[in-house]
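Can anyone check this?
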Amino acid sequence: MNPVRSAALAVGLVLAVLVVVFATREAGQDRMTTHLVGAVAPPVAGSTLDGDHWDLDDQRGRWVLVNFFSTTCVPCVEEHPELVAFAGEHDGSDPAVPEVRVVSVAFDDRPAAISRFFADHGGGWPVLPADVGRIVVDWGVVAVPESYLVTPSGYVAAKVVGGVVREDLDGILSRAVAAFSGKWVGQ
């Protein structure tokens, strides 16, 4: 068989398999599932834009939302006010509302642009700049924005691909609190 024809046949077969996979998956599945959900959260540690050291392991006992973003990403810019509202609502000031710490990890961005972005758009949480080593790889981030909710015991409870909405985050948190309450503690 002709090598060009063989290559074309192989490409066609791969495309056919992809069409079947995408056509048979549940709607919304790609926004909420990942191999990390239910697993121990990979490390997130490094120097913040403010020069402080931040480590996810130091947050044990607290819910954490890990947000991967870029200042040049339109959905990241659009989701930012939602993150600001969510962080404000879950800042620990209301005992009836679960406290959630937010940390952002910049994806392929410059520290000056990140600082300017947060100065212009708000958000008083720790931000790790782009020079964070393997964090993006360890979390399997393919494109931004992506956000992960981490339980107080350090497990990934949920993943959201694409821009977040505060009400959706509240729903994810409520379900996670109910589902993971008392699970994985002390492991």
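Reply from J.R.: I decoded it. Residues 33-180 form a domain with the Glutaredoxin fold (CATH 3.40.30.10).
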